[in-house]
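Project standup — Tuesday

K.O.: blocked on the structure for the chain from last sprint. Re-posting the sequence here as requested.
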Amino acid sequence: MEDDEELLSALARHLEEDGFAVELARDGGEALDLLLGPAGGQGTCRFGAVVLDLLLPVLNGREVCHRLRAAGCWVPVLMATAFGELDDRLEGFHEGADDYLVKPFSLAELAVRLHAIMRRGARADAPMLVVDDLRLDVEAHRCWRGGTDVELSPREFDLLELFMRRPGIVLTRGTIVASVWGRGAAISPNLLEQYVARLRRKVDAPFGRAGIVTIPRVGYRLEPAR
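H.V.: unblocked you, prediction finished:
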């Protein structure tokens, strides 16, 4: 979320090239509507990560972050600002930011930091994940669907955990590879498709479900039941 049009365009272009799906907001009010919906619903944030400029119009970045956390939205937040003083950074962290980047910054560093906070955020939340009748116990490394145990390999488990932490959110292939295998991993699209297919055969097909949806030319989404 940024109000400088030239910087916005550059950020969006670079992040899309790095595998992110990007949506833009130009002020703090627009950012909150985009993140939580116009009604500001509790915990309804549908994004994998957020970049917030500190000096957004209408509502500044710290206030946006504060309201996100108050609404129960714990999406990873990277705060960007022209101010590098310690007090500014500490105040941003106090409002719930996960990382801080001082302008001018490298677009490559921005992408690296986003991948890092998304990986941390994917494992720092509740140990029991539930999407409809699909349950994942992160600590015990167990999976159930409708009370039936589902055996998953470690990589399949990590992949399903990523999907279940962001239900309804489109995850690009680049984001999935960076989160599950690590940034820079040499994972071909075909190998990723194989892992998704295995996961479907275990958690969807035996139960008559089609929860893991392919988004052509983009990635995948775990679709909760309507």
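K.O.: great, moving the ticket to review. Residues 107-124 form the longest helix (18 residues). The longest strand covers residues 77-81.
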